[in-house]
Amino acid sequence: MMKKLGLRGSFAAAAAAGLLVLTSCGGGEEAPAGGDEAAQDGGLTEVSIGVIPIVDVAPIYLGVQEGIFEEHGLDVELTLAQGGAAIIPAVQSGDFDFGFSNITSLVIGQAQGLPLQVVAPGPQTTGEAGDDFSSLLVPEDSDTESIADLEGDRVAVNTLNNINDTVLKEGMRQEGGDRDSMDLVEVAFPDMIGQLESGNVDAIMAVEPFATMAMDTGAREIYSPYAEPIEDLTIAAYFASTERIEEDPETVDAFIAAMKESQQYAEDNPDDAKAILSEYTEIEPEVVDELTMPQFPQQVTRDSIQRIIELSEETGLIDEAVNIDELLHEDA
């Protein structure tokens, strides 16, 4: 029987960004902006952050739970959305102060002229093929043995034109296949198992907890798309609009410091990182025990982001390479 993943909270529309609001956490009195300075004055600066209901964001939930953000003068509200591509316009419109998104979507956004910058790291691959937090999976009885066998096949990704496109196409190229031959189709993570079982897609690219859940139903991993094609890959990051960075640098600096501290806490306390998943998902305990967690570094891997920029241009996601120094905040 298929295990089901539920998401806590009510569904509401955030029309400006087309988001599904699933849950939020945080609270506290409103206070003037200014990060640590506001905290010293006895108040907290309220900040809203768009995130995704996957293991990647466990550190920020831990940071809220452990009081790390409060120590830096921030009262955090977290709002869940389906993907980083939807969070970007919400940050640009001011609906969110900060957002979480995959690197490719951020590269595309900047290439399109959106004023944004990466301010803090998110998850990084474990670097271990077969033991990472993202998997390319096929049905147990499939004849497919490698990513190169998926030429012409339908492969599910959670959103199109994001980092999953990039790593799948590069993986296909490295294995000798035609990188443009896969038919990538958009399927929300919770729906991937059903689509694979029904035969509507030939393979799925799933992240945790959905990868473990799929394997528990019999799906078979044939490739580790975050671990194999690009070394030490930074998958996603937290970002802000350049306007926010320029107008409120103290709050941005406070967020960066708190986020890095939260990343380190999650890295040092993997059991706590798994336990916090129950705060924003309803994963069954036995699934949590099986999960492979990403690494949570305090700095992005610059070389891997440069490679994402190059591949985005090569595959036509962007017309011209963006300047990595303009994409990355100096403290990212």
Automatic annotation (TrEMBL):
It is found in: Periplasm. The keyword Isomerase does not apply. Residues 46-269 form the Solute-binding protein family 3/N-terminal domain. InterPro entries: Solute-binding_3/MltF_N (IPR001638), SsuA/THI5 (IPR015168). Keywords: Signal. PROSITE patterns: PROKAR_LIPOPROTEIN. Its main location: periplasm. It comes from the Bacteria. Pfam families: NMT1 (PF09084). Residues 1-27 form the signal peptide. Belongs to the bacterial solute-binding protein SsuA/TauA family. PANTHER family: ALIPHATIC SULFONATES-BINDING PROTEIN-RELATED, TAURINE-BINDING PERIPLASMIC PROTEIN. This is MetQ/NlpA family ABC transporter substrate-binding protein. It comes from Yaniella flava. The lineage of its organism: Bacteria, Bacillati, Actinomycetota, Actinomycetes, Micrococcales.
